[in-house]
């Protein structure tokens, strides 16, 4: 991960069903918010979802670097937007320079719905919108994980625990920590990545993933779903863009060092 950006269940207990061959990433969205959107497009999409939605936080960031003597920093860039809309909170992350600031990760957390859908209604709505999914129930936490992955791309939304293929954690999904986690798993040739990538483990090859999670019993169709989490993340794009940003900052650092060296004056001894 590019350092220094400053902010202005048990295996036997996982039941899988409805395994798919993957979906087209450009067909995935969360309430109309899609990967690759600009800030203006995100704002329009969330206002279309809820005209009363409010922007509650706009986080800017910059990268520091040094010529060995003097410290510098890049211009500030858009890092994250946070909205509140009804019973939901949205967080949307944008790619850092030198690439254009476009969405690479979206998270929605919804709770407190006074008229919650039943589990059956919720699952039907999901499969109607996105198609068949990979479904896992984690009995140790009472969590259902429903996941769609990008066709013809390795699956990287896996557990960091080598003994468990899939869990309800967000370690590989939550920016910016997910970059460090995935890069570390790649360097160590993590078994859960080797399972999906084979012997050529490079996390920049990871696909896009859409994940819904919620709590409750596994097979009660009438259970009310009043709280759920959603992630839509271009994991491979997130890695590739972070590597590109790292190269860009290193170039700035190299240029600053060269300039400082060119201005050096021979001391009087």
What report would you give on this structure?
Strands 1-3-6-7-8-12-11-10-9-2 form a ten-stranded antiparallel β-sheet. It has a two-stranded antiparallel sheet with strand order 4-5. The protein has five helices and twelve strands. The chain is globular and about 85 Å long. Helix 3 packs across helix 5. The model is unreliable at 6-20 (pLDDT under 50). The longest helix is centred in the C-terminal third of the chain and has 28 residues, at 235-262. The chain has helices spanning 39-49, 119-130, 177-187, 191-197, 235-262, and strands at 6-7, 15-17, 54-62, 64-66, 71-73, 77-85, 88-94, 103-111, 134-138, 143-149, 208-215, 227-234. The protein is α+β, with helices and mostly antiparallel strands.
Amount of beta strand: 25-35%
Strand arrangement in the largest pleated sheet: 1-3-6-7-8-12-11-10-9-2
Distance between the ends? 44 Å
Which structural category fits the helices and strands?
Answer: alpha+beta
| Shape, principal axes of CA atoms | globular
**What fraction, in percent, of the residue positions are helical?**
25-40%
Number of separate helices = 5
What value does the average pLDDT take? 91
